[in-house]
Amino acid sequence: PRAGGQCPACGGPALDLESRRELLLDLAKRSILDKLHLSQRPTLSRPVSRTALRTALQHLHGPPQEALPEDNRGQECEIISFAKTGLSNINQTRLDFHFSDTTAGGMEVQQASLMFFVQLPLNTTWTLKVRVLVLGPHDSNLTLATQHLLEVDASGWHQLLLGPEAQAAYSQGHLTLELVPEGQVAQSPVILAGAAHRPFVTVQVRVGGKHRVRRR
Amino acid sequence: GIDCQGGSRMCCRQEFFVDFREIGWHDWIIQPEGYAMNFCTGQCPLHVAGMPGIAASFHTSVLNLLKANIAAGTAGGGSCCVPTARRPLSLLYYDRDSNIVKTDIPDMVVDACGCS
Question: Which of A204, B13, B41, B116 has the fewest CB atoms within 10 Å of its CB?
């Protein structure tokens, strides 16, 4: 409506178009931040390369499988976290993952898996031990929570489903994985960490869903 | 529901696109580039309370007429132009640790408006 007119909905003084636009954009911003449980927009600490982003997005799952009733489905999220490669040497590769927004109300980890790229010499099979290290409850030392063994017999991307210990570490905001080759191999395989092959963890999470009430 | 056109003063849905580049959020929101938020505006005189946007049954229509006739002249208590259908917005964004998050935010797009 023209400036100086009357608002058709509430009868108050009509806003000029520019002020109304500002008001609506501000409303849109607040609506998005509220529903993402964010107090302000994130400032990016370490931008991710487009190559790593594209590679990771190819591994994102589609829409949630089971169609739960609206009232207890909560908001489903999928999170991809790229590894910050910690101290590594020829005998082991350490990968650190940080998750700070795990405090959103009613966070429930559904599934977590590690994706990593291996360059393997031809016709070799490699046994890899993946150790899940978590921060102790009262100190900053890392303790072994569990470990998985994985047979790798070809170069390329490999996925390892992580169990409840890694999921619990996600909820605490910090997960460390150590990849240790088992046994002796003639030529040591390489876990690539370049832009297009950065290892990453995908976590499927449900936020704010009502916990299922067991009906007796 | 009814989309606002020209000088329409009755309850309708006004299209409104939020461009994330315009609000400077295109660096942390990866996809989409914006979204149609839309909003409801316009008047809801008593005799259309409960009309477009909420399928007005015969019962509702009679009730509206009763309300309009009996309540004619009484102040206040008008009905409001509100969203009657909304859709989620799928978002792909970076969190403050540069993790990539994909989520569906419920009730973000107003699809239809009607009188409460």
Answer: B116
Task: Tell whether B5 lies on the interface with A, counting CB pairs under 8 A.
Answer: no
Q: In this predicted complex, what is the ipTM? A: 0.78
Q: Which of B103, B107, B109, B116 to mutate to test the interface with A (most CBs of A within 10 A)?
A: B103
Are residues B115 and B81 in contact, defined by beta-carbon separation less than 8 angstroms? yes
Query: Helix or strand or coil: residue A124?
Result: coil
Averaged over successive runs of 10 residues, the pLDDT of chain B (116 residues) comes to 82 93 94 94 74 53 66 60 92 91 92 88
- Cβ atoms of A24 and B39 closer than 8 Å: yes
A205 three-class SS: strand
Q: Is A103 exposed, middle or buried (0-12, 13-18, 19+ CB in 10 A)?
A: exposed
For residue A199, whether the previous peptide bond is cis, meaning omega lies within 30 degrees of 0, is no
